[in-house]
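Suppose you are handed a protein chain with no further information: no name, no annotation, nothing but its sequence. What can you learn? This example shows the usual starting point.
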Amino acid sequence: MNDDIKVLLIEDDEDDYVMTRDMLKASTRQKYDLQWVTDHKEGLEAVIQGDYGVCLLDFRLGGSTGIELLREAVSRGCKTPIIVFTGQMDHETDMEAIKCGAADYLVKQQVTPLLLERAIYHAIERKQAQKRLRVLNEKLRCQNEILGESRSTAVKLIEQAEIARAEAERTNRQLEVSTMQANLMARESLRANKAKSEFLANMSHEIRTPLNAIIGFSDLLSDESLSEQQETYVNVICHAGGNLLGLINDILDFSKIEAGKLDTECIHCSLKELIENVDAFLRSEAERKGLEFRITHDVEVPGRIYSDPTRIRQCLVNLVGNAIKFTDKGHVSVHLSLSESDGKHCIRFDVEDTGVGIAADKLDIIFDSFSQANSSTTRNFGGTGLGLAITKSLAELLAGSVSARSKLGQGSVFSLLIPAGVNPSKEPPLKLDSKEVRPSDRQEQSFSGRVLVAEDNPSNQMLIKTMLRNMGLDVCIVENGQEAVDSACNEHFDLIFMDMQMPVMNGYEAAAALRKKKMTVPIVALTANAMKGDADKCIKAGCDEYLPKPVNRKILEKVMAGYLNNKPVAAADVQQCPPATEEKTPPPACDDSVLISSLADDPDLVPVLDIFIETLPEMLDSIGAALRESDMETLKGRIHELKGAGGSAGFPIVMQHAAGVENIVATGQADQLDHAVEELLDLCDQIMDKRKATANR
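A reasonable first move is to predict its three-dimensional structure. Written in structure tokens, the prediction is:
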């Protein structure tokens, strides 16, 4: 379907019209011409008389229902496929719509752009298949009438009838495949349970926005000259804000773990830096409670390991933070030793405290979600009961484990075991400073330059403006993305902070517009969205950095130093905001298995793979022509289309190569473009050859 598909939407709710329009616009493979009608009578005439590829019909239209309109349209000979498009989840209504002649039945809350596009595609395909069947049946009827004219003519007609029947059977099989695909997509959409993820994302954003102001202003207030009582009040606000942020992060992490979407990234990392980071983060809290806090290690512990330092740090912060929370006197200590598990070298972190302890019969449940040692724990100490469950899941993601031993009233020892990933004998030994590592007093850095801030929330405007001005910067505030684009084009700025959720034009659109205008000023995304994928979404829109709200002033200073003082910012220092990373075009595939689609073994999905293979030659020809003609806009669009199609067809290697070419086009690296596109085309040729060879077996 290359021509624009005319879609008639009969819908009396403007919000649902906007939703449908935006989902159709999201399609990268097909363009749609959407016509909107709001009432029963006008909609009935339009669907009967108009030349539409498909009709999306709302179930409730003022005083009538979509079923009534559907019956009347069918009775008047309407040939346009009608998809009932409703917010009502009712199996009986679903069946009634199909019986009355609907091509499909979609529930608005469950519809995704891909599911809507597939439903439209299959409705049109079914209409065309039915038309072919009618033509074929008419042929058969005519041929049967003239069978008696002569024997030779009869033989020929019988042969033609057999061909027609074979084509009809093939069409029926195609219809069955289309129906199975539609059913599969519907089941996958239900299993995805997107409502939960969207709720968590929205709640995280709504809570983080005011929390940003609470934590930020209390942090600024702590630098002022305060009375002892005022300082106490400010410390309480800071502590409460930090606790609330911790609860939000726990709930989000738990949701990601449940959905299997929490990522790990193993690298060679310094164990010394990791431990000192935990020390600096938690020592002040231990000292505030009057506890002795110490970190020790055995001499054979290596100074470097191969694992995910961010996840290990998260585990240790949870365990040590718990130890401090549940200990009122005595000490909290962390001891590192070398251990062995299943023949692998492991680092063992023993976190010991002299706190309240845990009853023996409760040790089995403390790592369960939303579980506490007893019913008074939450009331006395706070928390969600998720910290240990998250720690256990993170340890297992790293192929490690966590365990506990304790005596009620005498304290506890929690042991975290993580594979070292290296040969300890070939690594330099761990050496921690003999003196205690304490967090230094904050010395706010001073910068010079002009900064643009796009932020629509008044309290957050005041906060970021105060923070930046205290650093010595000239700050300009605008309230939406359009104002940000206008200001950046008409004035000079050294750095732009961009909120991503704004009226008129959001931050993603504004960043993309600035990059399209060849603006090179660094853009830092400043957003309360903290779910998986939000950072990548900001970077792809054109931002250079991602800072989640509430904004940490130390991290803000490090980001500022990286852009205003031309100093690089270490990734280990900026834990919450991954820097923009340049995508590299991967080398040509050397492992033959990457040429085989992950859909190849699933009979329900093989037709999707076959459609990709059938359309691939035309797509590659278009890419080659665009490259020869130096048509960068067409090239960029076709490469993006290939990336999405390759991923949908089960070829991650195609997505990787296409993403690399996209990056080369976006950054203007003309000297690398020909070679990168040639590698991508060669990879696709290998995939087609492999599929052909597999199919011929």
